[in-house]
Structure formats: C-alpha cells, structure tokens
From TrEMBL:
It holds the Pfam family FBPase_C. The keyword Signal does not apply. CDD domains: FBPase. Residues 205-334 form the Fructose-1-6-bisphosphatase class 1 C-terminal domain. Keywords: Carbohydrate metabolism, Cytoplasm, Hydrolase, Magnesium, Metal-binding. Its cofactor is Mg(2+). Residues 13-201 form the Fructose-1-6-bisphosphatase class I N-terminal domain. This is Fructose-1,6-bisphosphatase, cytosolic. One of its GO terms (cellular component) is cytosol. Transmembrane segments: none annotated. GO terms for biological process: fructose 1,6-bisphosphate metabolic process; fructose 6-phosphate metabolic process; fructose metabolic process; gluconeogenesis; sucrose biosynthetic process. Its EC number is 3.1.3.11. One of its GO terms (molecular function) is metal ion binding.
Length: 341
C-alpha cells in the first residue's frame, strides 16, 4: 500500500475546512461567512441529489407556473428555489435575497436577519434540465451597508463590492467553484462522504484560449464588433488556427469549461435582445468575479462588467468573459467601433 498517497488521501481538504482556513485571513471574523456558506453547500447537495434522480422521481418537466421572466418553470426550478431560500433564511446570516425565480427581493424576518445579501440563480440552464445536460446554481454574496436601514440598495450594488461568488455544476460530477476574493478554488462532491473535497486548487484561466462559446443562432442580429470577432475566431487572418466552437447552453457548464481550458464565452446584445439575455445580479456579476479572480476578464461591450451599477433586480447585460488576451481582442473591436463613430 502506498502509505504516502494513503496519508495524503486521509488529509481531506473539505470546503468547510478551506473556508475556515480562509477565515484566518480575517481576524475580525466570527464565522458568520462559514455558517452562511455551509447552508449554501447544503442547498447544492440537495439539488445535486434531486438532479441525479430527477428522471426516476418524476421531477422532469414543467411545474405548470411561470416565473418573473415569463418563462415556464420546471419542477426542479421550483424545488431548487425553495431549498435555497429556506437554507439561506435558516442560516440566520442573511438579510436580503434575490432569486431568478422570485420577482421581488426577499427581506428576511428581522428576528432571523444577518449581515449578508445573497443573489442567486437556483438552477441555471433550464433549457437543458430535461435532457440531462449539465446545469448549475450560481450565487453572489454582498455585505449589507446599514443593518438598521436595509433597502434594495443593499443588493443593487456594483459587482466590485461583491465579497464572494460561486457556482455549483450538476454534471458528470458535482463541482462547486468558489472565490472569496483570494483566488478561485474548485471542490468535487464525494458522494460516499457527502463532502466537497478540494480538487481544483487555485484555478488560473489560460491567458489565451482555443475555444469560443456563443449561440450562433443569434448571429443575424449581432452588432458589428461581435460579428467581426466571431468571424476572426473562424477565419483568423494572422496565420493562427481557427478556434473551436463549444456551446452547451448552460452558462455554468460553459463558464466551467472556459475557466479550466481558456477561451471566451459571449452572450452579446443583439437587435432582438438589446441588453443581451443574462441577468446582472445572479449570472453576470458572480461569473465576472470568478473570471477576474482566475486572471481573466469580463466586459459588457462598453465597460468592465463588475463596474456596472444595476438599478433593477432582474436587469440584463451583454457579457464577454474568459481568457485575458481573448477579451482584449473584443475590447479592441468595440473601441475601434466607438472611435469610428
Ligand atoms: P435560465 O437561467 O433561464 O436557464 O437562462 C440562462 C441560460 O440558460 C444560461 O445558462 C445560458 O448561457 C443561456 O441562458 C442560453 O441561452 P440561449 O438558449 O439563448 O443560447
């Protein structure tokens, strides 16, 4: 028996242990963030098991209601949302919640309140739920500004004020990727232990990638810089090889691949959706925070995505995020378009 490997295997870096170590960097902290995160982790474990047995448990298909975006809700959407809202409230560490599935923000009962605000998409990639393709949960965490005067302003904060962000991908394995502002780490759920174990320490997105990821079905409605960029990916004029197109249609899965392999994911604005499709508070901001923490960039077509100042809970924004050099290319195309005007 390879005792060294065995010894290594017994020194388990769980996500709780990792966050407790991180907590050491904040002498003033009283463990509130660790408690909040353990409740988010509980929600992810529940959804992971529900997604795994969805077909058997008749959780496939529509729930018969529509959400604030006018989208028909799936059974798993509703279930996941309920689980996260209850877990976050019962943590006693949250104050305001924003969910993709709820039109209004949820203000936690004052008796149960804590100092954190959580914006989340309980189950992202709804178009892929019923065909078993990877889907995920996305979350972003803020600190309230004034606990005696809690308002929507506590969640309508720029992404630069975000404390932490993450996603949990329900795919061939269940992987939770987290950043608390000190790099990005990935944890894989070991079903036999029921624990998320550190498997992807200190994720750094490659500086330049070989993959572009976009729904080309919208190409006829794209603006010039986006069309030019995708053309360059397919027919590079500088002698480099064309990029490969990879598009799963679940942001969590497309971003997870981009973080690990590099390249660029884009959901641009187009004539049909002048603000793009993806929502700022619980899709664009968390993924932009993670991408920047991993050494990449996130751009809206006009500015650094995290510097957006949202005014509505379910506001949308165009987004280009991924490897540093790839996003630089599209920033240059938008800059030359702007200077040409
Ligand atoms: P939901 O949160 O409603 O699932 O929508 C978001 C999403 O599914 C993203 O995960 C994905 O990147 C995008 O929409 C796919 O959109 P499209 O089908 O237009 O390419």
């Amino acid at each position: 028996m390879d005792h060294a490997a065995e010894a290594q295997r017994t020194d388990l870096m769980t996500i709780t242990r990792h966050v407790l170590n991180e907590q050491g960097r904040h002498p003033e902290s009283r463990g509130d963030f660790t408690i909040l995160l353990s409740h988010i982790v509980l929600g992810c474990k529940f959804v992971a098991s529900a997604v795994n047995k969805a077909g058997l448990a008749k959780l496939i298909g529509l729930a018969g209601e529509t959400n604030v975006q006018g989208e028909e809700q799936k059974k798993l959407d509703v279930l996941s949302n309920e689980v996260f809202v209850k877990a976050l409230v019962s943590s006693g560490r949250t104050c305001v919640l924003v969910s993709e599935e709820n039109e209004e923000a949820i203000f936690v009962d004052p008796a149960l309140r804590g100092k954190y605000c959580v914006c989340f998409d309980p189950l992202d990639g709804s178009s892929n739920i019923d065909c078993g393709v990877s889907i995920g949960t996305i979350f972003g965490i803020y600190m309230i500004k004034d606990k005696d005067n809690v308002t929507l302003g506590d969640v309508l904060q720029p992404g630069t004020d975000m404390l932490a962000a993450g996603y949990c991908m329900y795919g061939s394995s269940c992987t939770l990727v987290l950043s608390t502002g000190n790099g990005v780490n990935g944890f894989t759920l070991d079903p036999s232990l029921g624990e998320f174990i550190l498997t992807h320490p200190n994720i750094k997105v490659p500086k330049k990638g070989k993959i572009y990821s976009v729904n080309e079905g919208n190409a006829k409605n794209w603006d010039a810089p986006t069309a030019k960029y995708v053309e360059k990916c397919k027919f590079p004029q500088d002698g480099s090889s064309p990029k490969s197109l990879r598009y799963i249609g679940s942001m969590v899965a497309d971003i997870h691949r981009t973080l690990l392999y590099g390249g660029i994911f884009l959901y641009p604005a187009d004539q049909k959706s002048p603000n793009g499709k993806l929502r700022v508070l619980y899709e664009v901001f968390p993924m932009s925070f993670l991408m920047e923490q991993a050494g990449g960039q996130a751009f809206t077509g006009k500015q650094r995505a995290l510097e957006l100042a949202p005014t509505k809970l379910h506001e949308r924004s165009p987004i280009f995020l991924g490897s540093y050099d790839d996003v630089e290319e599209i920033k240059a195309l938008y800059a030359s378009e702007a200077s040409a005007v």
